[in-house]
Amino acid sequence: MERRPATSRARIAVRRIHLWLGLGVGLLFASLGLTGSALVFYTGIDAALHPSIRATVDAPAPMLDRALATGRAWRHDAHGKWTIELTGEGGAIPARYYPAPGHHADRTMVWFSADGTRIVRAEPWGGYLMSWLYRLHMQLLAGNAGGQVVGWSGVAMLLLLLSGVAAWWPRGRWRKALSFKRAAAPVRRWRDLHKLTGLIGAPLLLVLVATGVLLALPAVTQALLRPAPIPAPVASGTGRVTIAHALAAARRALPAGRPVFVDMPNDARTPIRVRLQMPGDPHRRFPGSYVFLDGGSGRVLAVHDVRHAGTGSALASWVRALHDGSFGGPATRVLAVLAGLVPAALLATGLLHWRRRRRRAIRR
């Protein structure tokens, strides 16, 4: 019996690996892609679904302090924390209440009126559509264990994409390998659709999946990129400065920065933290620079400027921006939405091609 050439045996092995990886993680890949597409514009979609949080007046710093006072009167925990978001876009003031340090799953999302005097919306994280989709996408609604599943399944998805490219890689004419044969048998047309969809989407999908793995597996990100640690200073434990004072002090410490979030802890021993976007930081909503302030005196305790934190921190600042497409504005975000639809198309065309091949083999 004539033996196949080594290259043919290797190609068959790669195709089998691609098939079994597709059958194993294809449905999860499609689900993560679809939820990821929905989440690219999730704040805008959520605002459209809840007209009560939209208005025409932005809130200056004194109104932020009024909103904080309203929030603390509504819910207070000795070790809790209020995080106020500075959108600069007008409308209600978005905030998050954490009942205790590190309990992110228990946080409550709160929106204050623009004048800070009342709460117009308050819902637990995961208790409304867009946050539920976010938890499904990041953790499969299963907490840290689900995040591990998503992260390590992402490694399998990277292998799935790479094995698909390797299985397709032409040995002869590239024009033939890139063609779509309209008059061919259905099994061949499904194969060509699967092939071309994968080739068009592969570059973006490789970036999205790789960055998704890094977001889902922080320990892996730390080991690979080694970003500089975020400071963890201790405050004096006396007094409490206002948000207006904290923002002014943060701007003096990093004059080129644009404040995005301010953390106001209830425990006076925990410092106030202002998160800022510095020039060159690719993510507008979740930048990587911080100023830590003493809550009693307003004195700057520590500064973490991502521009001077080393190569690892610079690379880490790009992970989320690449994953959600926000680094290039609306155009790249739309590309991220389209790329998220590709895994579902690959799953459908791959399954149809595989089923037709099986039926043809059974008939033979």
From the structure above, extract its key features.
364 residues; alpha+beta; 2 domains; 8 strands
Question: What can you tell me about this protein's structure?
Answer:
This is PepSY domain-containing protein. This protein is α+β, with helices and mostly antiparallel strands and 364 residues long. It folds into two domains: 165 residues; 138 residues, no CATH class. An eight-stranded antiparallel beta sheet has the order 4-3-2-1-5-6-7-8, covered by helices on one side. β1 and β2 form a beta hairpin. α1 crosses α5. The protein is elongated, with a radius of gyration of 25 Å. The two termini are 21 Å apart. The model has no long low-confidence stretch (mean pLDDT 90).
Question: What's the quick description here?
Answer:
The chain contains 11 helices and 8 strands. The chain has 364 residues and is α+β, with helices and mostly antiparallel strands. Helix 7 (186-216) packs across helix 10 (311-323) and helix 7 (186-216) packs across helix 11 (330-363).
Helices and strands in order, then pairings?
Blueprint: H1 6-39, H2 42-49, H3 61-74, E1 81-85, E2 93-98, E3 108-112, E4 119-124, H4 129-139, H5 143-168, H6 174-177, H7 186-216, H8 218-225, H9 243-253, E5 258-265, E6 272-277, E7 289-293, E8 300-304, H10 311-323, H11 330-363
Antiparallel strand pairs: 1-2, 1-5, 2-3, 3-4, 5-6, 6-7, 7-8
